[in-house]
Specification:
mainly alpha, 165 residues, 7 helices
Length: 165
């Protein structure tokens, strides 16, 4: 039995569409992709706000402003594209904000220590701190924010997301 060119392309990892398909079906890759884009946009917003506001304000002002804007936007993308869940929007949002507040709290403390106390430049300090908060956020969102373990008991079959146990 002979395979069609399309079937061979699905099996051939050298074929560009096969690689793209494999990458986009991997939740970890999608998280890194969305998180990376969000981090770049959030960092750009932080840099712009920091340049505009300067040292007239504490470092927390551009940080919290950039964080608030980006967290609202990325919630919907993470929910639909990364974790592919439905239902429980308010529960997911509460959990998502909780995880992000934990990351923000760590970011505030670390940026204050680095920038305000140790006088390290804000932008390089924020870049380094971002690596730590990305890891924290991934684990929190995977195992808490978009977890569907609670659905087994209260609403079986409600969510058909990838995060099902």
């Amino acid at each position: 039995m002979s395979e069609s060119p399309d079937e061979r392309a699905q099996l051939d990892l050298r074929h560009p569409m096969t690689a793209v398909r494999l990458i986009l079906t991997d939740q970890r890759f999608r998280f890194v992709l969305v998180g990376g884009i969000n981090t770049v946009l959030s960092m750009g917003l932080f840099i712009a706000l920091d340049a505009w506001l300067g040292t007239r304000v504490p470092s927390i002002v551009p940080l919290v402003t950039a964080w608030t804007i980006s967290v609202v936007c990325v919630f919907f993308v993470q929910r639909a594209f990364v974790f592919k869940v439905s239902g429980h929007v308010l529960r997911d949002l509460f959990r998502f904000v909780t995880v992000n507040l934990g990351a923000l709290g760590a970011n505030i403390v670390l940026l204050f220590l680095a920038s305000d106390l140790l006088h390290a430049p804000r932008v390089p300090a924020q870049l380094a701190i971002t690596v730590i908060t990305v890891i924290f956020s991934y684990l929190g969102h995977k195992h808490y924010s978009f977890s569907r373990k609670f659905d087994q008991a209260d609403e079986p079959g409600q969510d058909e997301g990838e995060n099902q146990p």
